Amino acid sequence: MELLQFADKAELLKKTEIEKIELLAFFLSYYQDKKTFVLQEVTSILVELGAPISNISRLKQNISKSRSFRRIKEGEYLLTNPAKDRIKQRYACRLNDEQEIETQGALLDEMLFCGKRGFIDKLVKQINHSYEYYCYDACAVCMRRVFEISLILAYENLGIQDEIKTNGEYAMLEKIVANAVCNNTLNLSRSKKEYNTIREIGNYAAHKVMYNTRKKDIDDIKQVYRTCLEELFYKAGLLK
């Protein structure tokens, strides 16, 4: 990824001074394989981007106080691994340009649902991309898959996954849903009454002969789908 593309995706120019340094240090580490960065180099990049640092002495003091950095020698710093992980997780959907799927977030809010697990991020983006490009069968199948994954992760987070297993393997989604809607530990809200509708639209798209999912089929459930998914993300510990 090029610097200008990175700056745009990360909305770098809207950040505080210390956040700008963090993001540029991450860019140099992640995309240019530089283990350390020289502060003068980073501030020069900011000048080129049209966001010069007004007070270098203050910036150095803030860097020395921040847990995101470790001083190597005068003017040279290291972005710590926890800081890298935090940035990578927060901006996962925006910064992953490997087989990148461009979307407008028409169906699911990527800022809400992405950045939790890499494999879920890809599926969420596929949901939005397929919806935006009229691939409604593909959209419905991906929606079903994310729904099933979220249910399983919720059970695992609560330590009750054995309730939806048979001979050590997870049951089919129909049986998982049947358990979920009456499971006291999972303790779902009233939206659980729509679980079979969500399951069926994906089933129809994947298995029903001579059936094509239409936009209206998705639109009819997209609000309740988002609500159900958000609740499951909380149950799964993916949202706090």
Write up this protein:
This protein is mainly alpha-helical and 240 residues long. It has two domains: 3-88, Arc Repressor Mutant, subunit A (Orthogonal Bundle); 101-235. It contains twelve helices and five strands. A three-stranded antiparallel beta sheet has the order 1-3-2. It has a two-stranded antiparallel ribbon with strand order 4-5. Helix 2 crosses helix 3, helix 9 packs across helix 11 and helix 11 packs across helix 12.
The gist of it:
This protein is 57% helix and 6% strand. With 240 residues, it is mainly alpha-helical.
Going across the major beta sheet, what is the strand order? 1-3-2
Computed CA radius of gyration, to the nearest angstrom: 22 Å
Number of domains: 2
Helical content class? 55-70%
Task: Tell me the number of strands.
Answer: 5
- Coarse structural class: mainly alpha
Elements, N to C (H/E) = HHEHHEEHHHHHEEHHH
Please give the largest β-sheet: 3 strands, antiparallel
Strand content: 5-15%
The span between the termini is 31 Å
Mean pLDDT: 89
User: Any idea what the shape is?
Assistant: elongated
Number of helices: 12
